[in-house]
Amino acid sequence: MLSQPLLDNVDAHSFAESDLAFLLAELDRVEGFFRRRVAQLQAVRPGASGGLIVTDEDVSLLLDARSVADAGQGDSFDTLLAQKRTASTALLLEAPAEPRLAALYRSFELSEFERDAFLICLAPMIELRFERLFGYLQDDITVRRPTVSTLLDLLADTEEARFQALSSFFEQGKLFAQRLLSRVTEPGMRPGLLNQQLMVDESILAWLLGAYQPDPRLETALRYTNPRLDEKDHLLTSEIWPTLADAINGQSVASFHGSDWQVQLSTARRLAVNAEMPLLVLDLAETPSNGDLALLEALRLALRDARMTEALLLIQHWDTLTAQTPGYEQAVHLLFAHPAPVIVSGEKEWYVHGVARSDAILRISFARPSYSQRIAIWSHFVDACDHEFDGGVDVKALASQFTLDSTQIADAVSSARDVAIQRGDTIHQRDLVNAARIHSSPNLAGLARKIEPRYEWTDIVLPEDQRAMLREMIQTVRGRGVVMESWGVGAKLKTSSGVTVLFAGPPGTGKTMSAEVIAGELGLDLYKIDLSVVVSKYIGETEKNLGKIFDEAQSSSAVLFFDEADSIFGKRSEVKDSHDRYANMEISYLLQRMELYDGITILATNLRANMDEAFTRRMQFIVDFPFPDVEERLHIWRTLFPAELPKTGEIDLTLLATRFKLAGGNIRNIIAGAAFLAAADGGAVSMEHLLHSTRRELQKMGRLISDVDLSF
What we know:
Elements: H1 4-8, H2 17-44, H3 56-62, H4 75-94, H5 100-107, H6 112-126, H7 129-137, H8 148-155, H9 159-166, H10 174-177, E1 181-184, E2 197-200, H11 202-208, E3 222-225, H12 231-236, H13 241-244, E4 253-257, H14 261-274, E5 279-283, H15 295-309, E6 312-316, H16 328-337, E7 342-346, E8 361-365, H17 371-384, H18 395-401, H19 406-423, H20 429-439, E9 449-451, H21 464-486, H22 489-493, E10 499-504, H23 511-522, E11 526-530, H24 531-534, H25 541-553, E12 559-563, H26 578-596, E13 600-605, H27 613-616, E14 621-624, H28 630-640, H29 653-659, H30 664-681, H31 687-701
Parallel strand pairs: 4-7, 4-8, 5-6, 6-7, 10-13, 10-14, 11-12, 12-13
Antiparallel strand pairs: 1-2, 3-5, 9-11
Helix pairs in contact: 2-4, 2-6, 15-16, 17-18, 17-19, 18-21, 19-20, 21-23, 25-26, 28-29, 28-30, 30-31
């Protein structure tokens, strides 16, 4: 019996009169099988009370108060069935559109016997009187669903026909393999085949009555829509559609791969509309991870529903499956056996392993949006936002600065809106920049350390030429969209839009600080990777570690700062053994990934002389960080000395800058050490504290220092 919520979901518009008329006509037709069987039983057990409760008189009333005896025997029943079949056929021919029940027959290619068996199992779910009829026929009023034996009694005229029809009720039979029928089971009980009760899935009944209702176990994983394309769908598919519009025709399976699931979904929506089909989406990430619904069963149900609704099926997160996934081989066979196109989607490209097949796979790669498309996507979501903006939004700057996909852009606009509402203000450009940075952050836990940019241009002490190069790097990032894509430089010169940089100079001369300034100026995340940790003595492990870093960072625009580059670079060694050969391969792999990375990568080295010229030629920018002279050291002392730091007596920063040849990193350590000494003394920082801290810093560096140097 239909549940009330299901009845409430019946769509009066999609459930046409012709659907109802044909369904009732078909039920009336199979009622003839009940009449024939009742007559047979009454002939062999006259006056008996079938099932002890349902009497012959009850049965006559259940069969519309018409005496089954009046129908006669043998040929007259065949005549009755033929008449009812003619009536059903006439309704089908007169219907303005194919009724859903007739479409189900056709879609699943059901034989006449399979149709009748399906209808008989459906009958008690539509009219309760059939439950009592089954109690009578099966001589047990508690058995309210047809058993296999009862179906054979109703539909098979001879013993030979019974044996031939029995195979329809095996698991490999169409009715069960396609999940049109299921067995009514009780915990701990498994009756023999003939005594098994059968029923139609309520999802199928819902569809026949004009509603779509997925299996309850797939309630959040399976979505059915009749897509109507909107501006966003056309926008997101504008670049790939010209090459894809007719590509899927004739292909049984198409594989979408890429990071932007929203573009993949919009493409599937557009394909469905183009083919005049509904769209059914199965998200494997939403299927239960345990319980009684395994991967294979979820796939069978989705394929059944796609066939029943004649929808284009899109299966998301298909790339999470591997050849080791239970049921993987059968799942692949099910895909290729489906009579209509199926789309599987995921981040990674899918290749079938260990499964024989003859059908081809159409593979579609979804690249990240181009610069011009990012501008359009930013504009779309900004215009669609229901919160006010503070002035105009520079979408070109956002598109050039961040290589986000459409999902990340949509999320960034939503996050910026959240911040503005919480602040009680309009949305500012900086809100969008901060949100874009957050949503582009890669998952590099364990492989890199995130650094929050703290320094500004005023903190950097460098010659003007080096400062100019840092500014040029920033300008390169901001202008790469226009130059590489709009002006065609990337396509013509086959040049990557990534920015590769080498910072060379002694420790403490400002390499990390400069990386922070660049990231801060661009509003990007900064990740520091210690190459001495990434490099492994095991062959192939270094490339694997580097691959993880770049794969994770590829979806972001983060600045990657590789420190301790000396651990992997050096004068290219002459290949004398396998170790030398693999060392050079590691270097080549790193440079290749740097050039392909759509962001800024910075290599930091203490000894530029150790770098092979063949490698430095592949860098777009090389910045030398010289050891600071006296004036620069004095500027560093003054810049790093906090204004809030309490001081006592005369602090002679000029003396410190002149007497001690130290880099900025050492000076920072000395000031911090002096502050802790002063705090321990309960007072302010004095010259004595600074000189004592200087002694400790020089000792760490292994440099000798005399008492004269520490006098003032």
